[in-house]
């Protein structure tokens, strides 16, 4: 077999030669290159080459973005708006009279700022009408207002007009920030024979929407003020695969969502910010046999509990965020459900929570759900395939016992009454915990040394009682591969030397420790005191990271070691044969400081010189020696 030969690539000898290579590319490749650049940048490039100019004027896709109109006062906004509209008109004017486009987009949500309640501009309307009248357009994406009061754009008459031949070729239509004609509160979309995707966001003036599009696959209706009734005819429902509806927050329904049962292709439903009955949700889950994802967020079941025990066997994702102010029970039975997310506005409104029929769960997330340690113990026995468990704001939890071989990620945050926990999970790779009051006593946390843990500490200074509880809690994390401590203030991590005296450190074997603190220790000596406390918690840490706000500082520590004859491994020296404790003050050899301020470096050098008996050197960023004991 012959050897593969490497070919030498010859680079262009001059910028002109490089430009020539690009100019020789076919139109379709140039169009792809232009699609990755802002339209204004491409327009400027066209000045440099007639070839670029010709290719730009024949590109089948045009996108206009206007993101800077919100800054400044009324006059400045108006000036930017005029320049943007002139730019659209100028770009289209350079096209040949017979031009056609495949895709046309205008992203200008601030276009209607500081304007009349139903703003419009004849030049924008003319540009849209010109593109539509040429025919052949497949994608139309227009965002010309914010959708808020006084910040919307009056929909041009050529769009959504009944019996319009301009709509015949559209496959994707997205309209955002528009106001429709108040004289037409009822809208029927029926002249889109090829439309597959329809999105209406933040529109005004539609009370009743009826859709009859035989090839529609995706429908999204988001925050349309005034909309009450949404109807899909059977022909549209037969091909629909994804349906998303977000109600206006101040309206809150009740909406009349008429989704027929004859939706053989519907796999995803997402409904948010509405008031619907529990029966509606149960009927949808039971009748749509192909449904794979059901997402109900910020919704209020008007009556009864939410019983999804008769759901689709294909259901894989279920997300419920209940905003009711009355007790609501939830019962779910879905044998193939993989992901379940359930949250309440307040834990006191959770009456019953039953997931006994969800034996295939891999991910379970609960927020402010009223559960107990006994509930967790009983259900985990039935969920052998569970990999991710998140518990947030579950204040009724006082004790947790998790014994699970397959669990990979465990999160317990805001469970402020948690007093003790026992975690034994051979596959556990990530653990997160935070609380605002109590520090629980951890009986066992086992993850085979691969655990990456993040602990949020409660606010307040250390006393005897808190130190005792914290030491017991932190002992379970000494075998972690990496530990992160999160605190609101540096004082939440500083332990007075008098309290530490005579007590053993909790995490001797920890090698990587990171702290995230919101407030920088301002008082004199506070920074050094923080480092001293952290080195007491983990006396042999190799990497100590300190992050205050957006700046991260790192200490890398190197120790004296000796080879153990029995194991053949390097082990840290003990301070004294009568006191077999491995203390950093007697074994620290070298320190590297990275990304520290000069005054911080000076304080730390002084601290290590006085505290580390066998210190050889301190380096800054691994290159500059700022202290060398051997030179003294």
From TrEMBL:
* Residue ranges of every copy of the F-box domain listed in the record: 19-67
A Pfam family found in this protein is: F-box
PROSITE patterns xrefs: FBOX
Superkingdom per UniProt: Eukaryota
Q: Which SMART domains match?
A: FBOX
Q: PANTHER family, alphabetically?
A: F-BOX DOMAIN-CONTAINING PROTEIN, OS02G0105600 PROTEIN
Q: What is this protein called?
A: F-box domain-containing protein
Q: Tell me what organism the protein belongs to.
A: Linum trigynum
């Amino acid at each position: 077999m012959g050897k593969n030969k490497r070919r030498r690539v010859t680079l262009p000898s001059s910028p002109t030669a490089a430009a020539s290579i690009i100019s020789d590319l076919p139109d379709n490749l140039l169009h792809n290159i232009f699609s990755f650049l802002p339209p204004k940048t491409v327009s400027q490039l066209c000045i440099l080459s007639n070839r670029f100019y010709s290719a730009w004027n024949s590109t089948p896709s045009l996108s206009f973005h206007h993101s800077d109109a919100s800054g400044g006062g009324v006059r400045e906004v108006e000036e930017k708006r005029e320049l943007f509209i002139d730019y659209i008109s100028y770009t289209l004017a350079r096209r040949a009279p017979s031009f056609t486009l495949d895709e046309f987009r205008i992203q200008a949500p601030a276009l209607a700022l500081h304007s009349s309640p139903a703003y419009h501009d004849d030049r924008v309307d003319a540009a849209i009408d010109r593109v539509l009248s040429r025919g052949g357009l497949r994608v139309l994406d227009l965002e010309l207002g914010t959708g808020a009061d006084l910040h919307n754009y009056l929909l041009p008459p050529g769009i959504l007009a009944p019996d319009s031949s301009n709509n015949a070729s559209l496959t994707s239509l997205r309209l955002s920030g528009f106001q429709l004609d108040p004289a037409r509160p009822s809208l029927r979309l029926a002249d889109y024979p090829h439309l597959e995707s329809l999105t209406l966001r933040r529109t005004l003036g539609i009370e009743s929407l009826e859709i009859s599009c035989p090839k529609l696959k995706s429908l999204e209706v988001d925050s349309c003020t005034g909309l009450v009734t949404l109807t899909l005819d059977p022909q549209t429902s037969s091909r629909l695969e994804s349906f998303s509806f977000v109600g206006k927050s101040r309206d809150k329904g009740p909406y009349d969502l008429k989704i027929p049962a004859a939706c053989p292709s519907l796999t995803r439903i997402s409904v948010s910010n509405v008031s619907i009955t529990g029966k509606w949700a149960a009927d949808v889950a039971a009748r749509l046999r192909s449904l794979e994802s059901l997402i109900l967020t910020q919704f209020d079941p008007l009556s009864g509990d939410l019983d999804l025990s008769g759901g689709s066997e294909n259901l894989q994702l279920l997300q419920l965020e209940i905003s009711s102010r009355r007790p609501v029970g939830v019962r779910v039975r879905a044998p193939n459900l993989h992901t379940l997310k359930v949250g309440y506005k307040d834990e006191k409104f959770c009456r019953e929570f039953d997931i006994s029929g969800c034996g295939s769960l891999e991910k379970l997330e609960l927020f402010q759900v009223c559960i107990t340690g006994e509930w967790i113990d009983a259900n985990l026995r039935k969920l052998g395939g569970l990999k991710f468990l998140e518990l947030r704001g579950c204040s009724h939890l006082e004790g947790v016992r998790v014994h699970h071989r397959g669990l990979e990620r465990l999160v317990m945050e805001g469970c402020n009454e948690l007093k003790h926990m026992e975690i034994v999970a051979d596959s556990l790779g990530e653990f997160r915990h935070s609380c605002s009051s109590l520090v629980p006593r951890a009986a066992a946390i086992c993850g085979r040394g691969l655990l990456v843990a993040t602990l949020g500490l409660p606010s307040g200074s250390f006393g005897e009682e808190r130190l005792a509880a914290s030491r017991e809690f932190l002992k379970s994390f000494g075998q972690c591969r990496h530990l992160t401590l999160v605190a609101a203030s540096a004082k939440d991590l500083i332990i007075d030397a008098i309290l530490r005296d005579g007590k053993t450190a909790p995490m001797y074997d920890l090698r990587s420790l990171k702290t995230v603190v919101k407030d920088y220790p301002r008082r004199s000596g506070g920074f050094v005191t923080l480092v001293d406390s952290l080195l007491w918690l983990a006396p042999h840490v190799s990497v100590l990271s300190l992050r205050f706000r957006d700046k991260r500082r790192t200490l890398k520590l190197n120790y004296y070691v000796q080879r153990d004859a029995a194991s053949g491994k390097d082990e840290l020296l003990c301070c004294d044969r009568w006191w077999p404790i491995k203390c950093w003050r007697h074994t620290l050899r070298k320190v590297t400081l990275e990304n520290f301020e000069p005054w911080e470096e000076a304080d730390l050098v002084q601290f290590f010189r006085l505290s580390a008996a066998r210190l050889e050197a301190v380096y800054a960023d691994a290159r500059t020696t700022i202290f060398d004991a051997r030179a003294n």
